[in-house]
Amino acid sequence: MKNTFDFKKAISGITCILLFSFCLTAQKPNYDISKDLLLVQLDCKTDIDDLHTAAGLATLLNHPDYKHLNYYAVAGSYGIQEGLYVPPNELMKMAFKNNWTDADKEWEASVARVAKIVVKTIKNGGDV
Q: How far apart are CA 124 and CA 107, in angstroms?
C-alpha cells in the first residue's frame, strides 16, 4: 500500500473549506438595532402579499427583542406596473401607528418624510 500525498486534492479541499467559511461569514448579520433604520417599502399593488408582510412585521415588532427597532414603513411605493392598488391604510395604522407614510396619496410628502428620517439615521452613524 503506497502512502502518497495528493497535492491537488489537498489544495481542492483547502479551497472548499475556505470558500465555505467565507460563505458563512458573508451571512453574518451586521444590523445594529441601536442606530440602523429598517426602511420597509410596500407597493401594495396588484396583490395582497405586502399586506401579509405588514401584518407579519407588526407581529415581530411586538416581540421584546425588537422593542428598540428603528423602522419606518412606506405604503404605495410602486413603480409603473399595471394593476389595482390595494389600500392598506387601516392595517398600516394598526400595525405601525404613526411610523409610516402613504406614498400612494402623498408622494412628495412621503419622499420628504423618508429623506428626513434617512438623513438623520446616516448622520447618527447608522445604516439604512
A: 26
pLDDT in tens, 74-104: 998 887 778 888 889 999 999 999 999 999 9
**Is there a contact between 44 and 85 (Cβ–Cβ < 8 Å)?**
yes
DSSP string covering 9-64, please?
Answer: HHHHHHHHHHHHHHHHHHT-----TTT--EEEEE--BSSSHHHHHHHHHHHHHTSG
All three cell numbers of 125, joined, read: 452613524
DSSP assignment, residue 88? -
Q: What pTM value is reported for the model?
A: 0.74
Per-residue pLDDT tens over the stretch 49-72: 889 999 999 999 999 999 899 999
Q: How far apart are the first and last CA of the chain?
A: 61
Neighbours of 5 (CB within 10 A): 6
Q: Would you kindly state where each structural domain of the chain is located, as residue ranges? A: 38-123
- Cell 392598488: give the residue: 85
